[in-house]
Amino acid sequence: MKIAVIGGTGLIGSQVVKNLNAAGHEAVPHSKSTGVDIISGQGLGEAVAGADVVVNLTNSPTFDEASLAFFRTSMDNLLAAARKGGVGHFVILSIVGTDQVPELDYYRAKALQEKILAAGPIPYSIVRATQFMDFMDAVLSWTADADTVRLPATPIQPIASKDVAAAVSEIAAGAPLNGIRNIAGPEVFTLDELGRITLSHKGDNRTVVTDPTAGMFAVVKGDVLTDKDAHLAATRYTDWLS
Fold first, then answer.
1. How confident is the model at residue 100 (pLDDT cuts 50, 70, 90)?
2. 32 secondary structure, DSSP code
3. HSE (CB half, 13 Å, CA atoms) of 214?
4. pLDDT tens per residue, range 120-143
């Protein structure tokens, strides 16, 4: 199949392109660096022309309220181009629990992206993943100073980016789900516990302080960012760190 991977040069997209091409498909990466702009629409028609599948792995440049406009405009543009190009399957990557955290602008934006796709004219698949292991350093940096890192005890179920890319690749090469598949890492941690494991592995002597008000994940209630019934990936966090 010919598969247009929009956002195909990023962390997940580059791995998806590699996986699909290794499986014998023709996966082509598209991004701003290749002349495709999903907000202005520049290059979109050419990018999806003749594609059997479109995989949209683009992300908003911000996590604030502006992300809502980003996903609304980008999805409208992509769906219009895909429909005109005769695309038969449209895949996006979303977040486990995205519709359960309305307090976060970015999660509301991803929920909006899902709704636009589901209401659109093209058979679709939504892959919802738990938090990426690869983003843990960024999470630590949000609430850190020279001596401490403040983190809430929010339950998360971290997944390796290579496992996310494998799942997206498999679904892109298959029949449309016309629904959602949840994927997750094999273990659940509280975020503060995961912070301690990460710093210990790095030989970082800062103290993790459990703070229910610290950082973006402080507003998350309960265990909505985890799913023990999801398709579980194999990579454990300590193995990934090693």
1. very high
2. G
3. 22
4. 999 999 999 999 999 999 999 999
Q: With CA atoms as reference, report the closest residue to 69 among 91, 38, 102.
A: 38
Q: How many CB atoms lie within 10 A of CB 137?
A: 10
In 3D space, the residue among 180, 133, 182, 184 whose CA is nearest the CA of residue 160 turns out to be 133
Q: Are strands 148-151 and 155-156 parallel, antiparallel or unpaired?
A: unpaired
For 190, the token pair is: 């509280």
Among candidates 214, 217, 233, 237, which has minimal Cα distance to 225? 217
Query: Nearest Cα to 210, choosing from 189, 182, 230, 228?
Result: 189
pLDDT for res 79: 97
Alpha-carbon span 114 to 218, nearest angstrom? 24
Q: Which of 212, 22, 221, 190 is nearest to 107 (CA)?
A: 221
Strand partners, 54: 4, 90
pLDDT at 51: 97
- Per residue in 55-65, pLDDT (tens digit) is 999 999 998 99
| Pairwise CA distance, residues 127 & 95, whole Å | 8
Helix (H) / strand (E) element for 184: namely strand 180-184
